Amino acid sequence: MELRQLRTFEMVAEYGSFTLVARELRISQPAVSAQMQALENELGVRLLERLPRQVLLTPAGEVLHDYARRLLNLEFEAQRALSELRGSQDSSLRLGASPTIGAYVLPQMLADFKRQYPALRLIAEIRATYYVAEALQAHAIDVGLVEAAVDSDALVVETFLNDELVLTVPAGHPWAGRTSVAPAELQGQPLVAREPGSGGRMLVEESLRALGVEIVPLLELGGIEAIKNAVLAGLGIAFISRHAIKAEERLGTLVAVAVEGLDLRRPFYCLQRRELYVSPVIRAFLDLVRQARQQA
């Protein structure tokens, strides 16, 4: 296998079309087809299903696609490491973050880091914890910042910030002037929640269940901003990260109310691969993360 073939194969898998790949690479469509045929002949398996209007991966193609992405990401890392050793200023840092961190914690960290490395190219991908961990192990990103612990022998997991999910109500709500509410009072309240499977939602449900309270959300939304806007509109109440409502608390539009006996504190985690070589840029960002932990 040649890296050139794998790059073309990865593009075919992404675009699902020989024609689009040929246009992107500025070569002929038969040249793309010939590369893929040569790759299949060398490996002795069929990688692509060639349909009239689309090209799909076969099961063997799915397997190779996973390895091809890893190899190409490693090639990128090798080039970057050598570039840094030459003193080049065109290095980059690829980060992955889960939604709460990506929206409310990471921007300030990136601003601080950019002041130290103004020529650095920063690339951030906001995905669920599971996808961030997978991308890290596939060498698609350099560092992951997530809201749930990850169990993997291939990764180093460190806590770096503390968070707390708080019961949040709009300013005009009857509970807005109270210091706390009893868990039983939540029963029957219109609750706005994240989608099933969300780590934050599972933490809330399990913690309330331990206090003898079962809640059924009135409304399920996939994004934190959508949930905040629903609460602001008076559609219900919600458990939201303290980091996510700082601005609204300052403005007085949202109010955090304590729930007696309920502890929804949780750590945020920094993920990195277990490997011998860590580039100076990655090491500097990890130092920034550890500073955030010390200042918290």
What kind of sheet is the major sheet?
8 strands, mixed
What do the pLDDT scores average to?
88
CATH architecture heading of the largest domain: 3-Layer(aba) Sandwich
Helix count from the secondary structure assignment: 11
CATH class of the largest domain: Alpha Beta
Radius of gyration: 24 Å
What does this structure look like?
Helix 1 (3-15) packs across helix 4 and helix 2 packs across helix 3 (29-43). The strands form three sheets. Strands 3, 4, 5, 6, 7, 10, 11 and 12 form an eight-stranded mixed sheet that branches. The protein has three domains: 3-81, Winged helix-like DNA-binding domain superfamily/Winged helix DNA-binding domain (Arc Repressor Mutant, subunit A, Orthogonal Bundle), CATH 1.10.10; 91-158 and 267-295, D-Maltodextrin-Binding Protein, domain 2 (3-Layer(aba) Sandwich), CATH 3.40.190.10; 162-266, Periplasmic binding protein-like II (D-Maltodextrin-Binding Protein, domain 2). It is elongated. Strand 8 (192-193), helix 8 (199-210) and strand 9 (219-220) form a beta-alpha-beta unit. It starts with a helix and ends with a helix. It is α/β, with parallel strands linked by helices. The protein is built from eleven helices and twelve strands. The protein has helices at 3-15, 18-25, 29-43, 59-85, 99-104, 106-116, 129-137, 199-210, 224-232, 246-251, 280-295; strands spanning 48-50, 55-57, 92-97, 121-126, 143-146, 155-170, 180-181, 192-193, 219-220, 238-241, 254-259, 265-273. The model has no long low-confidence stretch (mean pLDDT 88).
